[in-house]
Amino acid sequence: MKKILIVLIVLGFVVTGCAQRKTVTPETQQPSAITQETQKKEGTEAKVPETITEQKIAKVESKELVTEKKYTEEEGIFKDIHFDYDRYDIKDVDKPVLKSISEWILKNKSAKLLIEGHCDERGTNEYNLALGDRRAKAARDYLLSLGVQSAKMEIISYGEEKPLCSEKTEACWQKNRRAHFVVLKEAGK
User: Number of C-alpha atoms within 13 angstroms, CB side, residue 177?
Assistant: First the structure.
């Protein structure tokens, strides 16, 4: 009798089935053409989020600095300083360049300085963004030691996104490992 009862219970589970779990996954793809058309007619079109890359972030940060604070960019006033592979320490040969930058900034009260950190193409995007940031900070810190106020300087890292040279040679990579200086002047001054 017990065997029949156990068989009937097992058979009951098999016939009726167990409750199935439904897994819900978030919709990450763009809506179908039919869904988009329906949403347009109803006026409830959903916006698909834009993919943000490191390059877009750097461009946005740079443009925000210039537009929000009402500054104009003047490039090419100062020479770039260069770094060794995978390094961010200031070389002795670049210290006179930084000295002349500090003297100019101290004389021009309304100007600010944007220090851009750049890398060569070797390494991951994330690593190069971090290394470019350390290079820009090293240049900023050296300028701070020369008396430039921190409020007069901004930094940004472009990593490998804005190369000067695109050849795959050591001489070209050396040109790309740099800190670049952009003078920001108040509009109208």
Answer: 21
- Among 103, 181, 90, smallest CA distance to 134 is for 90
129-157 tens-digit pLDDT:
999 999 999 999 999 999 999 999 999 99
> Which is more confident, 108 or 39?
108
Residues 167 and 120: beta-carbon distance below 8 Å:
no
Which of 55-59, 95-99, 136-140, 181-185 is predicted least confidently? 55-59
Annotate 1-31 with b (16+ C-beta within 10 A) or e (fewer). Answer: eeeeeeeeeeeeeeeeeeeeeeeeeeeeeee
pLDDT number for residue 77: 78
Contact 115, 179 (CB under 8 A): yes
CA–CA separation, 137 and 132 (whole Å): 9
End-to-end CA distance of the chain: 101
Sign of CA dihedral 131, 137, 140, 145: negative
> Do residues 54 and 106 lie in contact, with contact meaning Cβ atoms separated by under 8 Å?
no
User: In terms of Cα–Cα distance, which of 58, 52, 54, 170 is closest to 122?
Assistant: 170
pLDDT of 35: 42
Domains of the chain: 54-186 (3.30.1330.60)
Q: Which amino acid is at 46?
A: A
